[in-house]
Prior knowledge:
Blueprint: H1 3-16, H2 24-38, H3 46-55, H4 60-65, H5 71-85, H6 90-101, H7 114-125, H8 129-142, H9 167-173, H10 185-223
Helix pairs in contact: 1-3, 2-3, 2-7, 3-6, 3-7, 5-6, 6-7, 7-10, 8-10
Amino acid sequence: MDKETYxxxxxxxxxxxxxxxxxxxxxxxxxxxxxxxxxxxxxxDYDVLICACLLHDIGRKEQFENxxxxxxxxxxxxxxxxxxxxxxxxxxxxxxxxxxxxxxxRQNNTPQSLEAKILFDAxxxxxxxxxxxxxxxxxxxxxxxxxxxxLLDGRVSDGTDDEKPSFFQEYKYKLEKLYDRFYxxxxxxxxxxxxxxxxxxxxxxLKEVSDSYDRGIEMLKKAIGEV
Length: 227
């Protein structure tokens, strides 16, 4: 891929990016992670990979406006149309579309090509560790969701089996389970290197807020004469 082509794709990506959790910096991190992962693989089509990385989240705006839509499916279709309109080969556009439409974890739509597997791992790597925690908090703040939910007795839920969305619910439902879902050796290595940071943050935050509620509830009862 030459510089002119890269710039064409990059500019289209920049036109499409919006929210702070899935901004242009996320795209660049995914791209750089993908190139890192690809170095350990053989016969990688770098043109397909770079294009797919740059355009993998261009459907986010549509999903944000209509949560029933899947940004991966929308983005794959948008990328395909854009590539065809700009005279890219149909086979190339199809390969990029497959990468984008399978980068989101779905059991019935898994990545098949090497480039799709690399994009999947690179994108999931950006949901691990400290970066993954920060991005999740950004997103929860954007959509107005809380850090945690409370149990019926007024104490803090750790997120397990919560139905209401929160940071703790997202951690238990998604972030905690990411680390055994990588296709490539290097992708798995990156995730494992970051796992301890995420676990420590969650455990520390859970302890801090739980201690505050547990002590505070009992002290409040004494202060208002309930005990």
